[in-house]
UniProtKB/TrEMBL annotation:
Name of the molecule in the record: chorismate mutase
InterPro entries documented for this protein: Aldolase_TIM, Chorismate_II_sf, Class-I_DAHP_synthase, CM_dom_sf, CM_II_prokaryot, DAHP1/KDSA
Keyword Transferase in annotation: yes
Residue ranges of every copy of the Chorismate mutase domain listed in the record: 270-361
GO molecular function, one term: transferase activity
UniProt superkingdom: Bacteria
Length: 375
C-alpha cells in the first residue's frame, strides 16, 4: 500500500515541555462544570500532562445512554484552559462540532473510532476543516482495517491539515477477552511502517476498558515506540457517567506515569551499539537461513504436489497434517517456543503449501486465468 500523507512533527503542535512521556488526559465525558474544572486542576498539578481531553458529544453504541453534555461543555473547557493553561482536545463527529469547537478555541480535535469507520463522516469533518490550522488526531476505526484508517488520515490531510496524529484505541471483536478492544498491535505497527513520520498515540483506556490494565498496555505502547498516551481520568471515576471502569483519578494517573520505563529507540553509547550490532547480525544470518530452508521446503512441497496430481491424490490429508502439528508443537515446546506460536507458524507454512499445490493441481485452469487477467 502507498500513502499520500504530508505530516508535521508532533513537537510543532503540542508542547511537551520535557514531560516524559507525552500524556493527554481528562474525563471520558465532560459532565458538570465542577467535575471538569476540578479534574483539570488536579491533572495540571501533577505536572505530567500536555493536554486536557474531554468528550462533549459522545458517540454511544446504544441510544438512551448519556450522549454528551453538548455545546455548554465547551464553555467549561474554556474555563479549565484559562485556569490551568492546559491546551484542550475534543472529539468531533460532524461539521457543526468542528465549527463549534473551533469557535470555542479548542486546541486539538480528534475523530472517534466510529467516525473513522465511515468515509462520509470523515469527509464531512475534513470539508469543515478546510483552510483551518488545527491539529487533528484520528482514532483507528472500530474494525481492524488499515486502509480505512489511512484513508481517514488522507481525507483530513487533503483538507490541508498537516498537524496530524493517529490514536491506537484497539478494535472491537465479537469474542470477549480481557480487553474491551483488542489492541492488535500488528495493525498499529503496520501503520507505523507505512508512515514512519506519523505520530501514534496509544489509548490504553479504550483498549483495556479496565483501569487495572492501563499501566501494562501503556508500557507496551511505549516499548513499541509510540509517541504518547491518551488516558481517561476523572475526579471520582466510580461515579463517572461514561466509561466508569476505565477511568482513573489524577493521582492514579500520576502513579501510572511514574512507573513507566522510558526506553530509547536509538542508543548512543557505542559499546551498547556494538553489542546490539553483533546480535542483529546473528539475527540476520538466522533469518536468511530460515528463508532458505522455507524455500527448500516449498520445493519439496511442489514435488509432492506433482506426485499427488499424477496419482490423483487429494491435496489435504487431515491425518498427516494433524501428525505434523502434534509432533512439531511438542518439539517446539521442548525448545521453549510457545505452542500457540509454533501452531501459527506451521499453519502459515501449511496454507502456503496448500496454495502452491492447488496451483499445481489446477495448472491448466490457472494458466487460462493468467491469460485472461493479462489480456
Ligand atoms: C472516547 O475517547 O471517549 C471515545 C468515545 O473513544 P472511541 O472513539 O475510541 O470509542
Ligand atoms: Mn471514553
Amino acid at each position: 500500500m502507498k500513502h499520500n500523507l504530508n505530516i508535521q512533527p508532533l513537537n510543532t503542535w503540542i508542547n511537551q515541555a520535557g514531560k516524559q512521556p507525552l500524556v493527554i488526559s481528562g474525563p471520558c465525558s465532560a459532565e458538570t462544570e465542577e467535575q471538569l474544572v476540578a479534574t483539570a486542576h488536579l491533572l495540571a498539578q501533577t505536572g505530567k500532562i500536555s493536554a486536557l481531553r474531554a468528550g462533549i458529544w459522545k458517540p454511544r453504541t446504544r441510544p438512551g445512554e448519556f450522549e454528551g453534555i453538548g455545546s455548554i461543555g465547551l464553555e467549561w473547557l474554556k474555563r479549565a484552559k484559562a485556569e490551568t493553561g492546559l491546551p484542550t482536545a475534543v472529539e468531533v463527529a460532524t461539521a457543526k462540532h468542528v465549527e463549534e469547537a473551533l469557535a470555542a478555541g479548542v486546541d486539538i480535535l480528534w475523530v472517534g473510532a466510529r467516525s473513522t469507520a465511515n468515509p462520509f463522516t470523515v469527509q464531512e469533518i475534513a470539508d469543515a476543516l478546510r483552510g483551518v490550522d488545527v491539529p487533528v488526531m484520528v482514532k483507528n476505526p472500530v474494525n481492524p482495517d488499515l486502509s480505512l484508517w489511512v484513508g481517514a488520515l488522507e481525507r483530513i490531510n487533503n483538507a490541508g491539515i498537516t498537524k496530524l496524529a493517529a490514536i491506537h484505541r484497539g478494535f472491537s471483536s465479537y469474542e470477549k477477552s480481557a480487553f474491551r478492544n483488542e489492541p492488535m498491535w500488528d495493525v498499529a505497527i503496520a501503520l507505523k511502517t507505512l508512515v514512519p513520520d506519523l505520530p501514534i498515540i496509544n489509548d490504553p483506556s479504550h483498549i483495556t476498558g479496565a483501569r487495572d490494565l492501563i499501566a501494562y498496555v501503556s508500557q507496551k505502547a511505549l516499548d513499541l515506540d509510540m509517541q504518547g498516551l491518551m488516558i481517561e481520568s476523572h475526579i471520582d471515576p466510580s461515579v463517572a457517567w461514561t466509561d466508569a471502569k476505565q477511568q482513573v483519578t489524577p493521582a492514579a494517573l500520576s502513579d501510572i506515569i511514574d512507573h513507566l520505563a522510558l526506553r530509547k529507540p536509538e542508543v548512543r553509547n557505542t559499546e551498547v551499539n556494538d553489542k546490539l550490532h553483533e546480535l542483529r547480525n546473528q539475527i540476520d544470518k538466522i533469518d536468511d537461513l530460515l528463508i532458505q530452508k522455507i524455500a527448500e521446503r516449498m520445493q519439496i512441497v511442489e514435488k509432492i504436489g506433482n506426485y499427488k496430481k499424477d496419482n490423483n491424490i487429494t491435496i489435504l490429508q487431515v491425518n498427516r497434517w494433524d501428525e505434523i502439528l502434534q509432533k512439531r508443537v511438542g518439539y517446539g515446546k521442548a525448545l521453549k517456543l510457545s505452542g500457540e506460536f509454533t501452531e501459527k507458524l506451521l499453519e502459515l507454512l501449511h496454507s502456503e503449501s496448500i496454495r502452491k499445490q492447488t496451483e499445481i493441481m489446477n495448472d491448466e485452469a490457472g494458466q487460462a486465468k493468467e491469460k485472461l487477467t493479462h489480456a
